[in-house]
Write a structure and sequence with these properties.
Layout: H1 2-21, H2 38-46, H3 54-57, H4 64-69, H5 71-74, H6 78-114, H7 120-149, H8 154-164
Helix pairs in contact: 2-6, 6-7
């Protein structure tokens, strides 16, 4: 159990060190969230991938955003374009929704510590919730890659990988 607490202290210390070296603000809430950079907040609010689906991308599962960007080069049919847009739009909608929740939970965690009221139970609850939503966000991005692969031909996937430099 001591190792667990030591691990938590180390993680918290790293987060606090990062927070001290960078002052970042949420443009949406107007409140400071010390643990998130302004770039991270922007990415969460815009539904960006942030490398969450890199394992899919590097293992022959193209991403819908980049497929749409390369539609001409991949010679996508209109049906493929329409299907890809649906996958991308749903992924983005879900990612934005989850990103807003993550930002709010991080804000709550930051406020808990800044108010001096942090305790083991409340911190564990928030950290667990944040991890759950981060997992859902990652799944949202990975699942879009799974769906995307089914729409493309093998030749299009090879062209995609070549164009993306893989």
């Amino acid at each position: 159990m001591k190792n667990f607490y030591f691990f938590l202290v180390i993680i918290f210390s790293i987060k606090m060190l990062n927070a001290q070296t960078q002052s970042h603000h949420s443009s949406e809430t107007g409140n400071e969230i010390k643990t998130l950079t302004s770039e991270q907040i922007k990415n969460y609010l815009n539904g960006e991938g942030m490398g969450l689906a890199k394992t899919a991308e590097l293992n022959h599962f193209p991403g819908p955003k980049h497929v749409l960007d390369l539609a001409k080069e991949l010679k996508l049919s209109q049906t493929q374009i329409d299907s890809t847009k649906k996958i991308f739009d749903l992924m983005k909608e879900n990612a934005i929704y989850l990103g807003k929740i993550i930002i709010e939970k991080e804000k709550q965690l930051d406020q808990l510590f800044s108010s001096g009221t942090a305790d083991e139970v409340s911190v564990k609850k928030l950290v667990t919730e944040i991890a759950k939503f981060q997992g859902e966000l990652r799944f949202t991005h990975l699942n879009a890659h799974i769906q995307q692969k089914d729409i493309l031909t093998s030749e299009q996937i090879l062209t995609y990988e070549s164009m993306r430099g893989y």
